[in-house]
Amino acid sequence: MSAVFKTTHLLSYSFIFGATTYYSYIVSPKMFKVLDRDSFSTIQSAVFKQYFGLQALSGLILPLLAYKSGLKIGKLGYYSAGVSFIASLTNLLWLQPLCHDIKKQRQALDLEKPEDVVEDDFLRKQFGKYHGLSLLMNVIYSASLLTYGIRFGSLI
Question: Where are the domains of the chain?
Fold first, then answer.
């Protein structure tokens, strides 16, 4: 049974690390460059709940699979998985919904009062602040997942 858990753990880690790095650092920047803002925003909004949900789930599943397979990932492995879980949960439950709401407020403002530069400037700054925090959480997630992988990789 241990071989099944080890294989599942390896494939799960490979999938989430590959998906995270590819989407965050290749796909998203490319879409940002080639799509108009509304199209880019629509795609990101459609993807983010599943994306951050998968990240959060990985922070729970990976250490559980390591434990079940008998891998001794130690404190570093468990701490890095915990950090990845907290960072992704922060994006999933707080920052992504907040950024989405601010974006909706800006869209409504554009329709109702397109000349209200002061309010738009305030919302733009709010979005920038929380989006920056979201990017930071994603970098923290990626770094903690890499740390987990280095620890895990040293055992196989």
Answer: 2-153
Q: Report yes or no: 87 and 144 within 8 Å, Cβ to Cβ.
A: yes
pLDDT digits (tens, 9 = 90+) for 67-117: 999 999 999 999 999 999 999 999 999 999 999 999 999 888 888 877 777
**How buried is residue 149: exposed, middle or buried, by Cβ count under 10 Å (0-12/13-18/19+)?**
middle
Q: How far is CA 103 from CA 60, 63, 80, 81, in A?
A: 31, 36, 32, 31
Tell me the two tokens of residue 6: 């080890």
Give the separation between CA 60 and CA 138, rounded to whole angstroms: 17
Provide the residue type at 133 as one letter.
L
pTM of the model: 0.90
CA distance 155 to 149: 10
Q: Return the closest-CA partner of residue 84 out of 132, 2, 151.
A: 151
Q: Which residues contact 145 (CB under 8 A, 6 or more apart)?
A: 16, 17, 20, 58, 80, 84
Q: Which residue has the tokens 């965050």?
A: 24
Per the CB < 8 A criterion, the answer to whether 69 and 120 are in contact is no
